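Worked example 2:
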Amino acid sequence: MAPRTGNNNETRGRGGKRRGHPYRHSRPKPSGVDGTLGGSGGDGKALFSTRPARAPRSAAPEVPRAHEGGVSLPADTAVLADESVAHEGGVPFSSLKGKLNDDLLQGLENMGFKYMSPVQEEVFSKLPSLSSDCLVQAKTGTGKTAAFLLPAIQNLLEGNRPARGQVGILVICPTRELAQQIAKECDGITACLPRHQKIECHTAFGGTAKASALNKFLNGNPTVMVATPGRLDDILGEEEVRERFKDLKTVVLDEADQMLDQGFAPAVRKILRSIPPKRSGWQGMCFSATLPKEVKEVVNIVLSPGYTSLSTIDPNETPTVDRVPQFSVIVPDIKQSFAALLALIDKEYTAAPDDFKVIVFGTTARGVAFLHDLIKAALPQFRVFELHSRMSQGPRTRTTEEFKAAKAGILLASDVVGRGMDFPNVGLVVQLGLPSSGEQYVHRVGRTARAGRDGRAVILLFEDEAFFVKTNPKLPIKPYPQELAASLEPYYMQIDRACAEVDEDTKAKAYQAFLGYYKTYMKKLRMNADGIVALANEYAKAMGCPESPMISKKVVGKMGLKGVKGLRIGEGEVEQRRGVIIGEGRGFFQPR
């Protein structure tokens, strides 16, 4: 994408002719987008090498709920697209009359649920009872939410309801978006219950005002709690909160493999130690697409021996990661990775310009914020979005709905874009920088080639990160088939100009998050602390920083970098006042 000049509404097509660019246009706000979930080298040598290195739904009545963070969502938007499964010709929910409460069946009908999905049918037909422990293997987008909510809620309605003010059902899931999705589906399902049986659903997740949400929880009747591990672990530190979990009836782990892979295993284990022990009799339900070692270990805590194991995954089906063409690009240094990203977008857009929809994953939330501003400045002809854990909930929700609705555009994202979220028609996934694990890499690749569409995936690493491809030989990653190095110079110019437009505070936060993330991978990178700091300073230079941003003594100490050469130590007051966050890496201070 050689530098474009002139009207941003145009771009050069093949042969140099100008044409109107399909992505630079007025952006009508999708229906319901209002902060809710309605609807986030001159020597002639190659500069770098490549190497392997659905059906419409009738609206349910609006039901006010007290969800944490004050996000009030109408019940007709209870279910996000990937969980709104209408399985025409399947077993109708009406066949559960006598097994499910009539008001729950009416709630399902109002939401447009007429037929059970395969996972729902499995649960209702094969569980010995609706209060039995179960391990269920099912993919995202198959109707899992209703498959665990309905049995759990039915058990409460059959006389197993906790005392007022007590949590009866606890659902733990990996992301805010998924927590909101589950809570709204709960609201829709229970919307028709009479007043004396009303079920209040609360949520707990980061990025919201903890004090006000905690106040609502303690003064409400939180029959159902849907929470992410970090915030739940935090609030369970309060004895008054722990008291509200004394009468638990059901504990659900949703997207267990994704949640544990993201570094939440310690938090989940701590939560399970904070609530009543399994011997107190609560039902355990674990839903997971895969069963890695971490999931199996937690299963032994959540489920009793003799639990029911169910699966709707075809063992003969080719996994997404094996169906998606995957490529690697290895560059000598970080600045070249920025230029290579522009070159890659250029090549991919030229090859398939229609409905060009891309997700670019970064390593940290602060790094993603920088990349968003960089790409937005460098490629103004594209619609550019950002979605990461450092965004407040309103903008995050708006971005989610806007990118879902967009026919084209580039989303810069952190791993809040997990399996619990579905963005239609994404044709390309790019991973810029070192993934935390092979599992994380696979989860990201799974954002493309969905619903029968084609997709591609490219991982772009600098030289020191190339070990990732070599140490994951089972991943079908091949060298990128085109030479990107031939015309990098124009992209360097674009990068330099774009970096000059990015706020210095954004760069400082990205720099410090970079330090925190890569310090956790010193052994794999075969670097000591001096090497990590030198690498971070190279990153700062690539971002156009005149000198490396300052870090407070306190933060340097927390990061274990005291006395390391190359750091600029400040007094800390400015950094603290700016709200600079350190260490967004997996397993370092804050996993999300």
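The radius of gyration is 25 Å. The chain has three domains: 78-311, 318-487, 504-578.
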